[in-house]
Every structure is written in structure tokens, then in C-alpha cells.
Amino acid sequence: MPKTQMRLRTPTGQERLEIDDTEPLGALIRLVKEKTGLVDFSLKYGYPLKNLEMSLDAQEKPISDFNLRGETLVVVPTEAPPAPVAVEEKTQTFNPKGVEPDETSLEWPDRGGHLVLRVMPDDNSCMFTAVGGAVGVENPSQFLRHQVCEYILTHPDKYNKAILGEDPTRYTSKMMQMDTWGGAIELSILSEVYNIQICSIDVKSLRVDRFGEGKDTRIIIVYSGIHYDRIAFCLDLSYPVEVDVTKWGVEDEEVIEKARELAQRLQTMHYYTDTTDFVIKCEVCGWIGQGAKEAAQHERETSHGQFGEMAIH
């Protein structure tokens, strides 16, 4: 018997559900109640989020009528649940370079929630973490690096020495090292691997770079010069990141404009590094240089890919 598989996101986590297509919607609602312990709630799905009809008449219709196969159902309690224990820890990760938590989100009344900046660890894998989390990959840093390198080596006509700036074998060997930064080449490849458009918003210029034209779905990341973070939508700021919405249809330009508005707020707080003249230090050998060009030259000459910005007082 055909079954509908979907993902259920709740204020406390997420899990997969499976139910026969012929079962009524009411059976799905009862299953959600059993899984969550909630009595009063609404269900949202799609990109952008929309309400699932839960009237008594609708509950008698078969699941197959609602086209929920492969969807993510977001459970929205009628009353917000108590803040999870992890909120304090999450708030601490929301404070990079002096940016306060209430300054990294924008209320979005039209969609009943908030657009937020999910700040990635400053560990030289921020781009992989930002993208991996948006597409739903757990512990993505090493896994996505492997996927990028495999793609490069299996597409020598597309990613050759002229494009990469060095021999593909040497390039991929360095990229597999956890202290090597990812950039535009890696974003282009990940767009192909996951069949998704990746929109990168530059905080300094507010420019939107789109990797993967012609895709149906997009994710949004923020680039602040030498660091990447992720854009997400949440129904309530107290909810854990596991229930974030991180994918939107490519026709949804409103979310791009909202994300640029958030980036503009970050810009006013100087949440970016000017890579044309910033002072940078190689964490491997202690070399000190100025600007992205000198850093790139040092990396080519030494294969050192771990850098940090130096504060000048």
C-alpha cells in the first residue's frame, strides 16, 4: 500500500513520519498528538510556509489529497512552549563581533515569525557548516569537503588547473584539510551536488551572488568578508534551530529582500571584514600580511590555509 513519508518538526526536535496514503488526515493529526504530547496546534508546510487545513471536513479526506509526500510539517503550538534548556547555549553563539541576539533577527509579521542569522563557528569550515545545515546534513564539514573534492576529480573538463589555479589533485588535497576555507568554487559545486540555488549576500556591498541558476529551491547564506553564516526562518525565537526553515522556492524574492534588510542591519554595525586592507596572520607559521590577495599568495606558496584577522588598536 502506498505510503506518505514526511518530516515532522516540533519545538523540541524533528523526526520522520510514515502513514498510509489512504488514511484520513485525522489519523495524521492524532499521530502528531501522540508524538508531541500537544493538544492544540496548527500544522504548516511548503515554501513559504502555509497552513494545512485541519477542519473536521478536511480530517475525513485521505492523506493523498494533500500532496504531503516528502514535505516537512512544522508543528506550531497554540501556546508557545517553555524555552528549551539549550536556549542559553544557543544565545551565546549568537554574539559574534559584538552583535547582540536581538540585532540578528527581523520580525516578519506577514509570515508569522522571524528571519534570523544563525552564526556559524569560526573554525575555518563556516561555509561548509552554513550550507550543510541548510540542506539538512549533520556534521557537514568533512562530508561536504569530500563531496566537493570528489566532484572536482570526476569533472576534470570543468574543474581544471586553469579554473582552480593549481593542479586539481593538489587543490583537493588541501581542501580536505579542515583548516582550508571554502569559497565560490565550492558553493558552485555544492549547488550542483544538492540541486539547489545558493544565494550569498555580501554584508559590505549587500550584493546577492546566486550559485545555481535554474534550480527550484534556494538556501541563503551571509558572507561577511572572511566568514559565512546562515539565514533561517523561525516561528518563535525560543525554538531550537532544528525546527528552522532554511529552504525557499526560487520564485520567493520576498525572502531575499528580507535577508538583504537583515544584512543591511549587520552592515550598519560593521559586521564584516574589508578584505582589501585587513591585517591577517597565518595561524600555521605566524606570517603577517595585508588583504586577501596577499593571503592567497601566501597560501599558494606554502599551502598554509589557516588564517585569522588581527585586531589593530
Automatic annotation (TrEMBL):
The keyword Transport does not apply. It catalyses: Thiol-dependent hydrolysis of ester, thioester, amide, peptide and isopeptide bonds formed by the C-terminal Gly of ubiquitin (a 76-residue protein attached to proteins as an intracellular targeting signal). Residues 115-234 form the OTU domain. It is an enzyme of class 3 (hydrolase). One of its GO terms (cellular component) is cytosol. GO terms for biological process: endoplasmic reticulum unfolded protein response; ERAD pathway; protein deubiquitination. It comes from Echria macrotheca. This is Ubiquitin thioesterase OTU. Keywords: Cytoplasm, Hydrolase, Metal-binding, Protease, Thiol protease, Ubl conjugation pathway, Zinc, Zinc-finger. InterPro entries: OTU1_Ubl, OTU_dom, Papain-like_cys_pep_sf, Znf-C2H2_OTU1-like_C. GO terms for molecular function: cysteine-type deubiquitinase activity; zinc ion binding. Hydrolase that can remove conjugated ubiquitin from proteins and may therefore play an important regulatory role at the level of protein turnover by preventing degradation. Its EC number is 3.4.19.12. It is found in: Cytoplasm. The keyword Protease applies.
